[in-house]
Design a protein that fits this description.
The protein is α+β, with helices and mostly antiparallel strands. Helix content is about 35%, strand content about 15%. The chain has eight helices and six strands. A six-stranded mixed beta sheet has the order 1-2-4-3-5-6. A hairpin with a 6-residue loop joins strand 3 and strand 4. The relative contact order is 0.14.
């Protein structure tokens, strides 16, 4: 049996604890508890997500800010029904519900402040998108205009799909496909990025 205090103190990886993924403005305003139905499953998937995707980003770029992490099925359904920027619970790319027994996924909406500052000055979001493709083994990424925030998700069999609400809007990279831009063109986009501090997973 988990208490909420104990759950929040669970360390998911070198840099992340469960507590920062449980915070929810929707939950706070509408008084809906954001507590996992299956804490052990949420922790297991959250741990894989943080260790494989978020830790390398934190070590490379510095602070990674979590905008929206775990959502309970009840909270996510409420957000969707009330048009609060939550996808349907059964939407194939929904990544915030970490503890559905038959859907192996964990994800979050995050901001990389190092890049957000450059994006504010007009930098192309695709510079970061292609850097992510070339360095970390994500399942899906979806970019948003505010702060160049993006959803990033972990799955055991990553499809490596990239979509964006930032112009040019739409799908940059279809699932299980190769980028249109060659490797040398992609690398030219991010020559000034910090040196990657992690294992490149191709």
């Amino acid at each position: 049996m988990w208490s909420l205090e104990t759950l929040g103190r669970v360390r998911l990886s070198k840099y992340f604890y469960m507590r920062e993924f449980l915070y929810s403005e929707i939950g706070n305003i509408h008084r809906i508890p954001n507590i996992p139905t299956d804490p052990d499953l949420a922790i297991r998937r959250g741990r894989a997500f943080c260790e494989e995707l978020l830790d390398p980003l934190e070590e490379t770029f510095g602070r990674v800010a979590v905008r929206s992490g775990y959502r309970s099925p009840e909270l996510n359904a409420f957000g969707n029904e009330n048009r609060l920027n939550c996808a349907r619970n059964d939407y194939p790319l929904e990544c915030h519900i970490w503890d559905f027994a038959d859907v192996e996924v964990a994800g979050a909406s995050i901001v990389i402040p190092w890049f957000a500052d450059q994006y504010e000055q007009g930098r192309d979001w695709r510079d970061l998108a292609y850097w992510l493709y070339d360095h970390v083994l994500f399942a899906e990424i979806w970019f948003f205009p505010k702060l160049c925030a993006f959803n990033i998700s972990w799955r055991p069999d990553p499809a490596r799909r990239i979509d964006s609400y930032i112009a040019p809007k739409g799908t940059l990279l279809k699932a299980k496909s190769s980028p249109v831009e060659a490797l040398d063109m992609r690398q030219a986009r991010y020559l000034d990025f910090p040196k990657f501090c992690g294992l490149i997973r191709a």
